[in-house]
Specification:
The complex is a heterodimer of chains A (292) and B (451). By secondary structure, chain A is mostly helical. Chain A has one domain (2-278): ABC transporter involved in vitamin B12 uptake, BtuC. Chain A has helices at residues 2-33, 40-57, 60-83, 91-113, 139-161, 163-173, 175-180, 185-211, 220-233, 238-257, 263-278; strands at residues 118-119, 129-132, 135-138, 213-214. Chain A has a two-stranded antiparallel sheet with strand order 1-4. A two-stranded antiparallel sheet of chain A has the order 2-3. In chain A, strand 2 (129-132) and strand 3 (135-138) form a beta hairpin. In chain A, helix 2 packs antiparallel against helix 3 (60-83) and helix 9 (220-233) crosses helix 10 (238-257). Chain A is globular. Chain B folds into two domains: 30-318, no CATH class; 323-401, no CATH class. In chain B, the strands form three sheets. Chain B has a two-stranded antiparallel sheet with strand order 1-4. A two-stranded antiparallel sheet of chain B has the order 2-3. Chain B has a two-stranded antiparallel ribbon with strand order 5-6. In chain B, strand 2 (192-193) and strand 3 (196-197) form a beta hairpin. Chain B is built from 17 helices and six strands. Chain B has 451 residues and is mainly alpha-helical. The chains are: A mainly alpha (292), B mainly alpha (451).
Amino acid sequence: MLDKILPYLLAGVSVGGQYALIAIGYTMVYGILRLINFAHGDIFTVAGFVMVYAAATMPLSVSIPLTIVLTVILGVMVEKVAYRPLRTAPRMSVMISAIGMSYLLQNSMWYLTGGLAKQYPVLPWISDRVNVAGTTTSRVTIITPFLTILLVVVLVVLIKRTKIGMAMRAASRDFETAQLMGIKINNVISFTFVVGSFLAAVGSMLYFSNYATVTPTVGAMPGLKAFVAAVFGGIGSIPGAVIGGFIIGICESLIKGSGLTTFSDAFTFALLIVILAVKPTGLFGENLTEKV
Amino acid sequence: MIKKNDHKKAWIALMIAVAVLVLVGALDNLPHVPSMLLTVLQKGAIYALVAVSMNLLNGFTGLFSLGQAGFMLLGAYTYAVLTVPVERQASVYQRYEEGGLGFSVTQSLGNSMGQFGLLLGVVICLILAGCVAGFFAWLIGLPVLKLKSDYLAIATLGFAEIIRAVVQYEKLGPVTNGSNLLYGFTGFTDFHLGSLKLTTVMPFLFSGLCIFVVVLLINSTYGRAFKAIRDDEVAAEAMGINLAKHKRMSFIISSFFAGISGALLAMFQASVQAVAFKAAMTYEILLIVVIGGIGSITGSAIASFLFVGCSEWGLRFLDNETTLKNFDAKVKFAVIFGVLIAAVVAFGLLSMKRKGEKLITRAAQGRPAVRWGAVLGLAVAAIALLWDVWFVISPRLKLPLLRSGFRMVVFSVVIMIMVLFFREGIMGDKELWDLGKKKRSAKAKAGVGNE
């Protein structure tokens, strides 16, 4: 029994870790701006494409940092162009702007890459096959959860112990008061996007090492699932996003294993509707009182 | 007095509607009409209906839902499953034994009563398509309508994805044909009056009727309740409006019409497959609503024709690699391009001046505040102009950038500009018939003076 489930379990933990990395970007942005950053999934895809093109001409020691830097720049640019001008606008407008940005990024990627699936470069060492408890899998499967947890610990320390982290907590608690206390809110938001995009870039490297090809729309689904993970764990909570990511990844993988592949996406959204109906604040979400 | 006025208005509206239908019918049958124009008109009419249905929810009731593609899918599949002709069911459902329903509503009615029976069958199936979508809207509305703004959006988006997965489920294959294409069912091309083709008239007729019903609804007590909920839920509740009931009603009605438009889309495409109804489709419809103006029915209709026209036809040239014929053509192109850029810059600067904004303002704390957006815009314009000059001087004749996919990039940039700078959209929350209102009310006052 276990040896049948184990490969799926491993794959689930791995993909869950990747979802978790993306979900953190969603949850942090939502925590501060109260905005679902629909473009986040596309930033994740852009990271994949940048890696494809960078690795074709440069050694990995250059292309990996370059991918991360470019992705971070893109994330911050998206915020500057699409969200900052609408800071005082109604929430619906900002969300529409996010959807428009996602549309723009997808179409631009399609144009620049010709719309064909690109082969993702093989990253040595992490793509190697290894043997775990009787099943062979690539090393990235084993690394992902540990790397995810390591990054999350670093992030939590950053948020709890540093000044910028304190500013972020203040901004997510009360936007306007934080501003009155002398926090430069735009810097804090930019920093949030830096962190989110950085994690999306790392997540994209792990994700595409497993899936091998990149297409312009490939990020939409993991993006949405990561958002569900963020909601599941309680939006605004980083440990929540991580646990949500792992749970969704494992469940999805087990459903695929049981032969109901068509329902693996549906399950995620069914879970979303159930959690929203039963406990809208998610597992670790704070109870927000509605101000009238 | 008021009643007489209403009669007059109704007559004018009816005349306009008939005129439009006759015009479209003429386009259908005249020779040398580009087929692309007909395609744009048909698809535009269908998108107008789904945009209006989304606007009813997002613009008039203030419920931000992103489930439109799911309801369209339900409508499209209901229609298609009910109308695939019996003799074609074997080939359509070739992967499933005993596939298909074994009857076809439009075929049996069409055989017994001719064109009228066909029309009756289509109407029945369209209404059923709407009802199925409406029923699922009721079902899903039970848990999700309690949610607020973006949670509602993501829940409905998720629901649309669930529907898409369920329809493709193998076990439902004998009915939905799994993830395979459904085709061969009654489409717009099957309609004709004698030898007159009615291919484009039908979508206009169906979608026009549905939009008319929505307009009536919006101007009724219910419509006013919807608007009250949009503007202030608490105040609306205090005035005795049952929030849950009205939200549910708006959601079901919107989905009903989305279902019908999905069925119309299936008729237009002559085939239907679940993969097409992705979240991207909902986003497109949302963008149409935004371009037209959130809360304007006519805005949505105009925007959908613009959207479909631009994406299918008007901007098509951006997708083709183009080489200019000679130097003269190049100069002409360069002049037009330069004038366009200059016009955009002038317009931007003028609107900034009107608002009293400056590129660099000296802020109170000493550090000058720079409008980076405007500066960036100017820089882009300057680069474009420099490139324009360089292009004239250089010996190349091939236009750069133009290749497959560029159309959508330009298109999405335009949409982003609309979303960021013209949030009102084309019509704001006004309707076409509101535009002349100021004049008319002035006239009415003058009329009172005369009496």
